[in-house]
Write a structure and sequence with these properties.
Number of helices: 23
Shape: globular
Structural class: alpha+beta
Helix content: 25-40%
Strand content: 25-35%
Number of strands: 37
Radius of gyration: 31 Å
Length: 934
């Protein structure tokens, strides 16, 4: 059956155009119910014959009750196509979660294509809103199920929309609210998962103050979207993403393109119920209220709103640009050049699920009733969340997950609901899972659909692979790999052959992952969503299934593997004569660790061909590295921590700084060169849809802390360009052997984040990679662990005309979305890795109080921040008692020194101090590593 659907759209030229499309309707779409004899026998049967009821859920139930739907107690659910389309348009994250339920064979969730069924398709009515039309379509589908199944089973429409429920009952349908249905299941614990409607938030009993007479308006109402849109258009309001200071939850920043600066938001009232990551509308305060805030170290249990931290790193918040001498006792606040504002509306919420524990409280008399409690997130940027629960005795002293539902103007805290329990507080596995949840890391096992995409195992090279004219046989070439110790997912290898003309043929061979991961497959979609592998201490969460990462694709020694190769002819001076790209077959002769490769190069007695190849590569790499540095590439430093882990308990046995060797730098140099070569190739062929990576130049404000620190020790850094900064860092030396590395660590923290982008979204001048001093850069060399490299492999194959460019590359917005997700996933992976290091540091020092040396890296009004070189740890040292915001100490910002008047006691930046380190628990469930002066 054929229907015509028409709609109007606006063309790029501004003309209004009517579009008519054919819409095919069928009558052979299966209902999904097991005993149904009417529908096709071969079709999928997901709805159970013994079900008490078949549930048809509306859009808002999916959007707001997804935590409940994911509970195994909820089964036999019909998801209508009209509902899924609406959910996808409104919240992609929820859509992915409900989609996972639908494809999970262990869950009874069935997708019914009501928009394609002849009996359930509904035409638009004149004057009917799209929301009303979709609600009507849901009722029509529910009625069809009711008539279709007859007396076999009860069909129940679940909706919290009063009007939709009323109409359904009037039309003879069975309809219930979410709460009434859950109550009928006689499982009280499930009621904790039910999201309290926003309108009910006002009448809920406050978790902190149970007296209704104390209710008062705490926050301003948010402006309606119509007023926000108008205000943004005329410059009254400014839009941007709100970022809460990681070290002070009462201060936030909104990057505004409209004024070209970041707006400071101070205090909960000015944040006006916004969360970290929300897109907000901000109104600037009068300029006489733009006061500079003092730079303090905040206490862990700080609850006052008069503490304003200067941010600690580039990704957390902007820098304080003031360089004047200031005294803590000064009563006249200086006027800041940085704008200060308040949030007037939320444009897009960023509410997530949060990990933490319940605030200690007396247990209420009796049990089983509804108890009110305050949830405290492990992430200090998140405000306390009030929940109601019927299982309080089971949740105390547990790490739990809570989701936010609403935040009313009458409530100091947002309201939320309990989602699930993770485990006991302090348990290492529990705390590791918290790290993963907090950073939105997907740890679900790969689905059967994903695993079905893998090639049969054991995999071996086929005659077709060798006969492929687009794949060169390089098995005769002496290829080898150099990786971290114990590495099993080897995605890069090299060769270096001396040519008769005295030049070298150097090849970088990368695992040909795209030979097995095809566009649009469940495997590809899963990898795209995960974005990257995540590395924790002693643990790895893979982007791709292990059979691929550790066997089929891994370039292990003595096995034939498929690769994508970049091959140069180089002179002994590392000048590139020619470059070619080819799919290949290789057989690695050795898989070495960095330590093993370095030992070979250093042992003068070894003159075997493999060792000679290593030395030749290292000689070329040194020349290439020096040439990069001469162009202005930065040699920065970071404190990468290395743990020795007990093989049985998996607890840390030792902690130290990861050592970088020449072998590491050699591999890095050729990977950088391959990435640059591939970037040039794909951009030449695809100037509008190449996936590249750029590193924006840091602003002067971002570099200010580094300049102030350097100036205080008599060092003049030139930051006019990356080349000038690189030369300045090379000359930053004194009698202290650690001084230069410390300066480079501080410089690293002032840098912006490198990001992926689509070439068509920016101008060529914006492609620049500041840290590498490269006009073009991309990621090609790690497709086993990064999806960006998979995308780039497809671009390179298309540029070589050995594969077609997938259709997605013609969709600019979708490409931009891929880049955005890659940046999000990469950032989260970094944060999870750091959090895992912090967790294992706490575990290590819990039983090992230690005295050691530390370096002062930042001066504060009530203390200073120190860096511990031996362990790569950073933390605060307090000079004043808790709650004392400076006392008699005076801060000299110019010379970066804090002094106590009337004494000769002072501390300066980069000074060495002796400290004591031990784990304490100043607040319940919040252990921390405490540093104190000896």
């Amino acid at each position: 059956m054929l229907q015509s659907k028409s709609f109007v759209k606006k063309t790029k030229q501004g003309r209004i155009q009517k579009v008519v499309r054919e819409h095919y309707l069928r009558d052979d779409i299966y209902c999904g119910f097991g005993p149904c004899s009417t529908c096709a026998a071969a079709a999928e049967r997901k709805l159970d014959a013994a079900a008490a009821a078949i549930l048809v859920v509306d859009t808002n139930v999916v959007l707001h009750q997804i935590d409940l739907l994911e509970n195994p107690a909820i089964e036999d659910v019909v998801l209508l196509s009209v509902v899924l389309d609406e959910v996808k348009n409104k919240n992609l994250a929820v859509f992915n979660r409900i989609k996972a339920l639908c494809i999970n064979k262990a869950r009874r969730f069935y997708v019914f294509a009501n928009e394609q069924h002849r009996d359930t398709y509904v035409k638009d009515m004149v004057g009917e809103s799209s929301n009303d039309r979709n609600d009507r379509a849901i009722r029509v589908a529910a009625r069809w199920y009711q008539n279709h199944l007859g007396e076999s089973v009860k069909v129940l429409l679940i909706t919290n929309d009063r009007d939709n429920k009323r109409k359904a009952i009037e039309e003879g349908l069975n309809a219930e609210t979410v709460e009434s249905y859950v109550r009928s299941l006689a499982q009280p614990g499930l009621l904790d998962l039910v999201v309290v409607p926003t309108s009910g938030d006002v009448t809920m009993e406050d978790a902190e103050d149970h007296r209704p007479s104390k209710k008062k308006v705490i926050y301003n109402e948010h402006k309606p979207m119509s007023e926000i849109t108008s205000g943004l258009r005329c410059g009254i309001y400014h839009q941007g993403k709100l970022r809460v200071n990681r070290y002070n939850p009462f201060e936030a920043y909104v990057g505004s393109e409209s004024i070209g600066d970041e707006i400071v938001i101070r205090g909960r009232s000015n944040m006006n119920r916004s969360f970290d990551g929300d897109i907000v509308a901000v109104e600037l305060l009068p300029q006489d209220q733009w006061h500079e805030s003092k730079s303090f170290i905040a206490d862990d249990d700080e609850e006052e709103e008069d503490v304003h931290l200067v941010p600690n790193s580039a990704d957390d918040a902007p820098r304080n640009t003031s360089s004047t001498q200031s005294s803590v006792g000064s009563s006249a606040p200086s006027v800041s050049s940085r704008p200060v504002g308040r949030v007037v509306g939320i444009i897009k919420r960023n509410w997530n699920s949060y990990c933490g524990s319940l605030q200690p409280m007396p247990m209420p008399a009796g049990s089983g009733g509804v108890a009110h409690a305050l949830f405290v997130s492990k992430d200090r940027r998140i405000p306390k969340i009030r929940i109601q629960t019927r299982q309080l005795e089971n949740l105390v002293n547990k790490r739990i997950v809570v989701a936010v539902d609403s935040w009313d103007v009458l409530s100091r805290y947002p309201s939320g609901h309990y989602v699930r329990t993770i485990g006991d507080i302090g348990d290492k596995e529990t705390e590791t899972e918290v790290v993963l949840i907090e950073n939105d890391i997907n740890t679900r096992p790969f689905s059967t659909q994903v695993l079905a995409c893998l090639p049969p195992l054991p995999w071996t090279l086929s005659p077709g692979d060798l006969a492929n004219p687009n794949r060169q046989d390089l098995r005769h070439v002496r290829v080898f790999s150099v990786d971290p110790p114990g590495c099993r997912d080897i995605d890069d290898a090299l060769h270096c052959t001396l040519l008769p003309n005295g030049n070298f043929e150097v090849g970088v061979h990368i695992a040909d992952v795209t030979n097995f991961v095809h566009p649009g497959t469940p495997l590809d979609e899963e990898a795209a969503q995960r974005g990257t592998s995540v590395y924790l201490v002693g643990q790895r969460i893979d982007m791709l299934p292990k059979p691929l990462t550790e066997d089929v694709c891994s370039l292990r020694a003595d096995v034939e593997r498929l690769a994508f190769s970049v091959i140069w002819e180089m002179t002994p001076d590392a000048d590139i004569i020619s470059t070619r790209y080819t799919k290949s077959v290789i057989k690695s002769c050795a898989a070495m660790s960095y330590v093993e490769a370095q030992a070979r190069m250093d042992d003068s007695r070894l003159v075997d061909p493999l060792t000679v190849d290593l030395r030749n590569l290292n000689s070329l790499a040194k020349i290439m590295r020096q040439r990069r540095c001469d162009r202005g590439a930065l040699t920065l430093a970071s404190a990468e921590v290395k743990f020795e882990i007990d093989s049985e308990t998996h607890d840390p046995l030792d902690i130290g700084i990861y050592q970088i060797r020449e072998a590491n730098q050699m591999i890095e140099e050729f990977m950088l060169a391959a990435n640059i070569s591939v970037a040039e190739k794909i951009l030449k062929h695809f100037p509008l849809c190449s996936l590249l990576r750029r590193h924006p130049s840091p602003t002067k404000e971002m570099l200010e802390p580094l300049l102030r620190t350097a100036s205080s020790v008599g060092l003049n850094l030139d930051v006019s360009s990356s080349k000038a900064l690189a030369e300045s860092l090379d000359n930053a030396k004194n009698n202290d052997p650690y001084f230069n590395k410390l300066i480079r660590i501080l410089a690293t923290r002032c840098m912006t984040q490198a990001v992926y982008f689509c070439s068509g979204d920016l101008t060529f001048s914006e492609y620049y990679h500041y840290g590498l001093a490269a006009s073009l850069y991309t990621h090609f060399t790690s497709p086993i662990r990064r999806y960006a490299d998979v995308v780039v492999h497809r671009l390179l194959a298309a540029a070589l005309e050995i594969a077609k460019l997938p259709p997605i590359f013609q969709d600019g917005p979708q490409l931009t979305g891929i880049a955005d997700n890659l940046n999000y996933r990469h950032r989260n992976a970094q944060m999870a890795s750091r959090a895992s290091v912090e967790l294992h540091t706490l575990i290590y020092f819990r039983t090992r109080p230690t005295d050691t040396e530390a370096r002062i890296v930042k001066i504060k009004a009530n203390g200073f921040i120190v860096f511990v070189p031996k362990f790569g740890i950073e933390g605060p040292i307090y000079l004043t008692p808790k709650g004392d915001k400076g006392g008699d100490w005076i801060v000299d910002e110019v010379h970066q020194r804090v002094t106590k008047p009337g004494t000769n006691i002072s501390y300066a930046v980069l000074q060495t101090v002796r400290i004591h380190m031990e784990v304490v628990e100043p607040q319940p469930h919040r252990p921390k590593l405490q540093l104190t002066l000896i």
